[in-house]
Amino acid sequence: MTDVTIEKPVLEPTGALSVETVLSVRHWNEHLFSFRISRPASFRFRSGEFVMIGLKGENGKPLLRAYSVASPSWDEELEFLSIKVEDGPLTSKLQLIEPGDQIYLGRKPTGTLVTDALLPGKRLFMLSTGTGLAPFLSLSRDPDVYEFYEQVVAVHSVRRVSDLAFREELTAKWAEDPLVSEQAPAQFHYVPTVTREPFDGHTARIDKLVESGVLFEGIPGAPRFDPETDRIMMCGSMEMIKQFAAWFEANGFTEGSNAAPGQFVIERAFVG
């Protein structure tokens, strides 16, 4: 018997895309995985931004999708968090990548989930569902964020316990991180909640945690959102984002952008 070698497609860079190498892949469960790729020396981004990544499509052309960068702006590699969709045009192929494979990376990152789009404040709340955690993984490892805010809170709502990607690192408050391991223990707060399985922590949706005040337990400051001191970022399900955006606007918060900073931001590229 002879080993069968599956020939991987060779990718060619374009004016808008570089070709990078997959360095590692981590499968969290049958629906979720993360992966790290090489970072070109010329690639610059702000923690919280997204970029186009992809593979070669059936027609031979790049098949691309926007992904938030999960690694901080100082990292020498780029990390991404993705769901697995069996019949998804890109994710059906992307979930099969292995170290050594090639992948397309867009040359121009962008986005509004950045500190530049927010007014100065005391507490930063990052509300996420599912893979919406990705940009907040980036921001929570950025030392500048801990200079801008006294308290940094990452809220992650998922259906199952195994969907809590990076739970160990977040629970440890980035204890092994080379740049924020000193600030994070005192300033970083991780609030995971699981809605469809038994869990030894919170088991309610984010809106219920806010209404009951449970979300704010252990976090210095008022047990509620205050437009004077609190700044909010949101990424994840459209339902969660639209619900909270309407609530924040009705309670005196203004939406921010890169051109006009405000008190809360969402990534409109993902919401539509």
TrEMBL record:
Protein name (Swiss-Prot/TrEMBL): ferredoxin--NADP(+) reductase
UniProt entry tagged with the keyword Endoplasmic reticulum: no
User: What residues does the FAD-binding FR-type domain cover?
Assistant: 15-116
User: Which keywords does UniProt give here?
Assistant: FAD, Flavoprotein, NADP, Nucleotide-binding, Oxidoreductase
Q: Would the keyword Iron-sulfur turn up in this protein's UniProt record?
A: no
Q: Name one GO molecular function term.
A: ferredoxin-NADP+ reductase activity
Q: Which Pfam families match?
A: FAD_binding_6, NAD_binding_1
Entry's family note: Belongs to the ferredoxin--NADP reductase type 1 family.
What organism is this sequence from?
Answer: Sphingobium indicum BiD32
- PANTHER family given for it? FLAVODOXIN_FERREDOXIN--NADP REDUCTASE, OXIDOREDUCTASE FAD/NAD(P)-BINDING DOMAIN PROTEIN
The beginning of the lineage is: Bacteria, Pseudomonadati, Pseudomonadota, Alphaproteobacteria, Sphingomonadales
What's its EC? 1.18.1.2
